[in-house]
Design brief:
The protein is mainly alpha-helical. It has helices at residues 2-17, 23-27, 29-41, 43-53, 64-85, 89-105, 115-126, 134-145, 159-174, 178-192, 196-213, 220-247. The chain is built from 12 helices and no strands.
Length: 251
């Protein structure tokens, strides 16, 4: 069975390769470069990256590659949002560090029930050893607690905390676009090892859930760019579905 899914994964990756990168990366290229610079050079981020690398489980589609992508995009969102609302460069940079830490930690408990709640509690305890203010630790805790889709929202009273939470959520949900079909879907398939019939029966529901994400983005920048990620994911998913039916004679 695994050989079939490897074949389908390779076909999916080929389909994705025919699509351009989402506009987010070209239109916000300067913000993305700054986010990447902070991510690669800030000592607290480096330390947390080392911590999570040995603890995030790659076989469930939410490992270190996922966390790194979320962190870079969340930092980019913070920079764009900070410029939009008039934050100073110093304040924006500090918020980037905060959201990138939240991004690295948000899926540490991904395989457990209520993983967002448990992950938030774990992060709050862990971050006592890091140089964050009480307010920043609370921002990270609430952002992790509130990063799941289709769940009751967590009240966040501070403007900065709401922005950190929104940027983590939006960057995480960008992954429901093309990334879902290059990596995440296949990691979860290899983990659960469904029969091909089970995989195909759940496929339409999976695409429908991706579609539902389109109207849930929380920041102005996320609402501008997020729907394109989702539209691309849906288009790739539909194209892959046709390939599966044709190549495996499932019509």
């Amino acid at each position: 069975m695994a050989s079939i899914y490897i074949r389908l994964r390779d076909r999916a990756r080929h389909i994705v390769s025919q699509y351009p990168l989402p506009d987010f990366y070209s239109e916000l290229s300067r913000a993305f470069k700054l986010s990447r610079h902070i991510f690669n050079t800030h000592p607290t981020i480096s330390d947390l990256r080392f911590y999570v690398t040995g603890r995030l489980e790659e076989d469930f589609g939410h490992g270190i590659q996922h966390a790194n992508k979320v962190a870079l995009d969340a930092g980019t969102l913070v920079i764009a949002e900070g410029a939009r609302i008039g934050w100073s460069a110093r304040v924006a940079k500090r918020c980037v560090v905060t959201v990138q830490c939240a991004s690295l930690l948000h899926d540490l408990k991904r395989k457990e029930p209520n993983h967002a709640i448990k992950g938030a509690s774990h992060a709050a305890h862990l971050l006592r050893r890091y140089p964050f203010s009480n307010e920043e630790r609370e921002d990270i805790r609430l952002a992790i607690h509130d990063h799941e889709a289709f769940q009751k929202r967590v009240p966040i009273n501070s403007r900065r905390g709401a922005l950190v939470s929104g940027c983590l959520y939006d960057a995480d949900k960008f992954r429901w676009g093309p990334d879902n079909f290059t990596d995440t879907l296949w990691c979860m398939v290899f983990y659960h090892n469904p029969t091909l019939a089970e995989f195909m029966s759940s496929y339409p529901e999976g695409l429908a859930n991706i579609q539902k994400i389109k109207n849930t983005f929380r920041t102005a920048t996320g609402r501008k760019y997020g729907p394109q990620f989702i539209d691309m994911g849906i288009a790739i998913g539909n194209e892959l579905h046709k390939v599966i039916e044709a190549e495996l004679n499932l019509k």
